[in-house]
Amino acid sequence: MTIKVLGPGCMNCKTLERRTLEVLSEINLTAEVQKVEDLDSIVGYGIMRTPGLVIDEKVVWQGGVPTKERIKELIGSVAQKGVAS
Q1: 3-state secondary structure (DSSP) of residue 65
Q2: What structural domains does the chain harbor?
């Protein structure tokens, strides 16, 4: 699983990255987490507001910082789809 945090480096982007790493640790899941700060790359995902969260190249969140519980749900829903494929 690859998770990307999209954003220019603002406090919300840093918070989303930190929460995502905490969630991965809490649920004992290994994933590659990348921070994407390049504006052209961010726009390429079609998001209009940062921060954004991309899991396995699918935008699952944009604009604002989700709770850790919501991040768990987002990761879980993508992981389940991957198992079902």
Answers
A1: coil
A2: 2-84 (3.40.30.10)
With beta carbons less than 8 A apart as the criterion, state whether 38 and 44 touch: no
What are the residues facing 61 on neighbouring strands?
53
Kindly state the average pLDDT of the residues 50-71.
97
The whole-angstrom separation of Cα 7 and Cα 29 is: 23
Lowest average pLDDT, out of 18-22, 57-61, 67-71, 74-78, goes to 74-78
With tokens 């990255």, the residue in question is: 17
Cα 72-17-37 angle, rounded to 5 deg: 135
Instruction: State yes or no: pLDDT of 85 exceeds 50.
Output: no
Angle of helix 11-26 versus helix 68-84 axis, rounded to 10? 60
